[in-house]
Design brief:
about 80 residues, mainly alpha, 2 domains, 4 helices
Length: about 80
């Protein structure tokens, strides 16, 4: 089921959205939804290449496992 959301946009932001939507031949709400989802997926998830690089770093994995263990045991040091 779809949900409605109301946005208040400055005129220049609206114009930019409208121009982009016209260029891509789609409605403004679809442009905004797609752009927002892409941004969320880019920032919240690691791509395959980055994940492979992280998982291949044995020293990093050891430190992450140690930190996780210390957090569970509440023996680690909190760093601000």
């Amino acid at each position: 089921m779809t949900k409605s959301v109301t946005l208040r946009l400055d005129e220049d932001v609206y114009t930019e959205f409208r121009e982009a939507a016209v260029a891509e031949r789609r409605p403004i709400p679809n442009l905004i939804e797609t752009a927002a989802l892409e941004r969320i997926r880019e920032t919240q998830f690691v791509d395959e290449t980055e994940a492979a690089e992280i998982l291949s770093d044995r020293e990093l994995i050891k430190r992450l496992e140690a930190g996780s263990r210390q957090a569970r045991e509440r023996t680690g040091k909190f760093v601000e």
